[in-house]
Specification:
34% helix; elongated
Length: 241
């Protein structure tokens, strides 16, 4: 079931992802989803880029990301939903960035835009905070929600300085967020690259045919099932996507 949830996040969902990281992700996940190897169409990645994508993310400062009403709960208890160091609120943005999700963070390899926004709002409102540091280490994120959060980061600059500390990667969605800070601090081994959107489509029709399985999709709207994984991706559908 967990693999199905990951697949739902990965396929037919617009993603901001560094290509070599997508290749590494698919290489590890594909046998668990399909039970066999996948043929990747339209994605060419150099071997050295695949090696780079395999580098692990650096552990961050926060133990988790707070979402929904958790920031307010911490405030009522006299705590903060972020690390506070010398008046600087440190907000971790690491791993796979997703739109929503309660209690997801470093342990799951994900960070939610919702949780980051809650921490950001709390830091802006806290009189003890004189500046905000976004600690970013991310290769990939969902398109949904990223630009709303980017707007919130830019708006926060009107109240307090916001710096982005890259440790060590801010690719795609990570860079979309970093770009809205007043300043970006990049270590000599760090990288900010690969701005663009990709949608991955899984074609399971051949596998299902080999297994003797026929899928019938019953729908009332012409384009309701466009991009489904049970048939090849038609060129007009690809063009619309």
């Amino acid at each position: 079931m967990f693999h199905a949830q990951i697949a739902q996040r990965a396929f037919n969902t617009p993603l901001l992802v560094e290509p070599s990281k997508a290749m590494t992700f698919l290489s590890g996940l594909r046998p668990r989803i399909t039970g066999r190897q996948l043929r990747l169409a339209g994605l060419e990645v150099a071997p050295e880029d695949v090696a780079l994508a395999a580098l692990p993310a650096r552990p961050g400062i926060l133990a988790g990301i707070l979402t929904n009403g958790l920031a307010e709960q911490y405030q009522r208890e006299g705590q903060t939903p972020f690390a506070l160091r010398d008046g600087i609120a440190v907000i971790e943005i690491s791993g796979v960035l997703v739109h929503r999700g309660a209690w997801i963070g470093r342990s799951s390899g994900q960070t939610s835009y919702e949780g980051i926004a809650a921490q950001l709002a709390s830091a802006v409102a806290d009189p003890m905070v004189r500046g905000i540091a976004l600690e970013i280490d991310s290769f990939v994120g969902e398109v949904t929600g990223v630009f709303d959060l980017a707007d919130s980061i830019r708006a926060a600059r009107k109240a307090k300085p916001v710096w982005a500390l890259i440790a060590e990667h801010a690719f795609t969605a990570g860079y979309a967020l970093a770009s809205q800070a007043d300043r970006i601090i990049l270590p000599r081994t760090g990288a900010v690259v690969s701005i663009g959107v990709v949608v991955m489509h899984a074609d399971l029709s051949a596998q299902l045919s080999d297994a003797g399985v026929t899928i019938t999709l019953i729908h009332s709207v012409a384009h309701k099932v466009d991009g489904n994984p049970y048939q090849p991706l038609l060129e007009p559908v690809r063009a619309r996507i």
